[in-house]
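Minutes, methods subgroup
Present: GH (chair), OT, SY

1. OT presented the first of two proteins processed in the latest run. Sequence and structure tokens recorded below as shown on screen.
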Amino acid sequence: MASSAAVTCSAVSSASAMSDRVCIHSDQKSQLRISAADILECCKTCGEGCNGGYIDEAFYYWNDLGVVSGGEFNTTDGCKAYPLPRCDHHIDGSLTPCKDHYPTPQCKKQCDHGSNLKYNEDKHHGKKTYLLPNDERQIQLELIKNGPVVAGFHVYEDFISYKSGVYQTDDHSKYLGDHAVRVIGYGVEDDKYPYWLVTNSWNDHWGDKGLFKIMRGNNECNFEHDIVAGLPK
């Protein structure tokens, strides 16, 4: 079982990776965006909605029941847009500060008002879900062959203030909980710091324009222990 992830990160990161893989495996012919809202609201095995979820269960739900298309908050190009507006997560920015808790929206098996799609006709499925071994080379090969993956990892207090560079937690930093993110690549900084390149779901004002690098190869913050991926049908 993959690690539990706080707030909506498991649904967002999973839907983002699914969308990437649909695009990659269609040779970029499909620009479908999988709905994080549909996973968040309607996947009963995925956890507790806005109170946390499981990334592997999100992928299994994609396989078994399918997920409709989606988009950003207040958009109508997909079936179910993300239900929450962007907010300033752990930063003092130009958006509204994020709340400590959001109620999970009710599961409605219908598309948003304004969408021309029909819920039951817009379901898209995966065909395979798998957990990767805690093996740096295998994770690298998966990224090269099939595209982004999702990682669940431990978050410590010093991660909140990350700005740039390759992150490694301070041994004395306070553990805050678990988080799920989309891993999009890897590299080496200054010829000596191997890293995973990761997109965070908080916003593009946090970190390095919404991205961060975390030390690769030593299971930093349990990062390489819970890697989940899947293939589209």
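2. SY then presented the second protein from the same run.
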Amino acid sequence: MYGCEAWTVSKQTQKKLEATEMWFLRRMLRISWTAKKTNDTVLEEAHTARLLISKIRKRQATFFGHVMRREGLENLVTTGMLEGKRSRGKQREKHIEGLTDWLKAGKSLEAIEATKDRKKWRTMIANAVKQGT
């Protein structure tokens, strides 16, 4: 989890992380692959629900708020508002787009404005963590 604040978590990456987390849980609970147990029953036995993704997203959101409150190069890079032309083809998913989807903030500008008020930003993060991924 070291450095996960800077990851861009796409849907494909999220699926891989969830599969890895499920593999970890099965190994910790000593559930063999021949035992026909669904992922839901494994999660119920572990008394947990997709903790890895929610922890990563929470750390990303807190780091994003920290960067947005500062005025510097990190702010420009994170928002993607650099000068120059974009490359051809389908554009890569930006860090802020993944966070706004998770926070259900609507537009990225709403999320950027919410970072200025710490209480509002923390409540947005807390609500997103409660709702899950």
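Chair's summary of item 2: Residues 51-69 form the longest helix (19 residues).
Next meeting: continue with the remaining queue.
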